[in-house]
Amino acid sequence: MKFQLDRYTRELIIEAMSAEEEQKIRNLVENFQYQDAQAPTMAAALLKDLNKGRIGQKTLSRFSKWCHTSQRYEKAQDYVCDISRIMFGFVLPRLWNKQNRLDEKAMVFFFDQLRQRGTLQNGHDKSLFKIENTKPGAQISEARLAFNYQHRISHAQIAGDADKNFLFILKSEIRSIRNFVKDKNTPTLSLDRAFFWLWLCYILGLFYEGALLFRRIDFDRVPFELKNTLRKIGYICEEKKERKF
C-alpha cells in the first residue's frame, strides 16, 4: 500500500491499494471483530476509514493499542498485527502512552518508518511529521466567538466605520453562501469565489455550509495544483459538520 500524509490532520491518505490487499484486510477485520467484546468498535472505525480512503490519527492510535495488548487479547492481537503488516509492512508501534495520550515521538518514528520503506509518497518532507502549529483556521473557536451575531451587534455600536463596513461585508458574504447552498438551481460559481467561500466557511467554523459548498464544486474545472488544497478543506468541513443553519 502507498500513502500520502495530510499536513494539517496527519491522516494517512490511501494512494494505492491492490484488490488483493483490500480483500485480505477486510477478511482479517471481519474475523477480528469476533475475538473480543470491544473489538467490533475498533473494526467499525477501521472499516469506516478504509472506505473513506483516509486513515485518521485517532483510528491509528486506537489500532496501535490493539497491536500491543496483554495476554487476554492475544487472539485479537494476532489479527490486528496481520492487518498492520499488510497495510504498513510492519507492526504498528504503540502510539498512545499509558495515560492514553498521543506519544508524539512514537508517531514521528512511525511516519519515518513508512518513509524509509518508500510507502509514504511525500515522506521526503520530514516537516510533515511534526504537528503543524500554523495551519489556517487554528483559532477557529476564537473566530466563532468574534463573529457571533450578538457580539457583532454590540461591537458595531462602538466600532469605527472601517470595522462596521467589514462586519457588514462579512455578514453579506455569509448570507450569500447560505443562499447559494440552499438553492440547487443557482449557476456554477467561479473558481475564485468557490475557493474564497470554502476557505471562509472553514475559518469561521461554518462546517455545514462548507460541506454543502464543497459538494457543489466542479473539480473538472479546478487546476491540479489547487485540487488537494480544496479537498483538504472540504473533507474537514464534511467531518465536522453538525447541524443545519
Overall description:
With 245 residues, the chain is mainly α. It folds into 2 domains: 2-129, no CATH class; 140-240, no CATH class. It is 60% helix and 4% strand. The chain has 11 helices and 3 strands; from the N terminus they run ββααβααααααααα. The protein has helices at 19-32, 39-52, 57-66, 74-88, 104-117, 140-146, 149-158, 161-182, 191-204, 207-215, 224-240; strands at 2-5, 12-16, 54-55. It has a 3-stranded antiparallel β-sheet. The radius of gyration is 22 Å and the shape is elongated. It starts with a strand and ends in a 5-residue tail after the last helix. The relative contact order is 0.09. Mean pLDDT is 78; it is low at 131-158.
Index terms:
2 domains, 11 helices, single chain, mainly alpha
SSE topology:
Layout (H helix, E strand, L loop, with lengths): L1 E4 L6 E5 L2 H14 L6 H14 L1 E2 L1 H10 L7 H15 L15 H14 L22 H7 L2 H10 L2 H22 L8 H14 L2 H9 L8 H17 L5
Antiparallel strand pairs: 1-2, 2-3
